[in-house]
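pinned: reference chain
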Amino acid sequence: MPDPYLPATEFLASTDADWARHIATIGPCLHQPHAARDPYESLVRSIAYQQLHAKAGDAIVGRLLALFASVPFPRPEQILATSFEQMRSCGFSASKIATIQGIAQASLEGLVPDFSTALAMDDEQLISRLTTLRGVGRWTVEMLLIYSLERPDILPADDFGVREGYRRLKGLEVQPTRKQMVEIGLGWSPYRTVASWYLWRVPAR
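pinned: its structure tokens
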């Protein structure tokens, strides 16, 4: 089976010696999006993982799914009918509960689009629409764009791992700012999603 990310890795490796060395060390891009996961579910999952290590996020989502064993993922109506205490028992903070309930309500009202509608919207249009929701920032929507909608050219410039990865890749004293990261990332377009995947994997030296 051909490597779908080969054009991206070859492009990035050609940008400079640091990228070439890093990509040679890591090997092929193994980015695994969750295609067709609807925006509502993707947003709820992103909120669950915010500011947590993956293992802690996995545990919280696992406890949430256990409350609704009869469905693959709880629907908005089910989230809204779940008590604060039940949500707390999963490990969600009060702030995250309010955000998730807001996402559920916005899904019922049509503000959070279904998958086919989201697919037809451009990146910035979707970011502008969804960041009007309480607790939903640009990073959260960018995770939706990367993992649910499989957009190939997303660089989450606010992401600590992306900025720290670039700092390590280049041996810098300090991380670039968000504005600097956006400008640097223009040189990786149209493959900024794959660039992000590699930056998340720059080892600590």
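why pinned: Residues 94-109 form the longest helix (16 residues). The chain has two domains: 6-32+155-199, 39-147.
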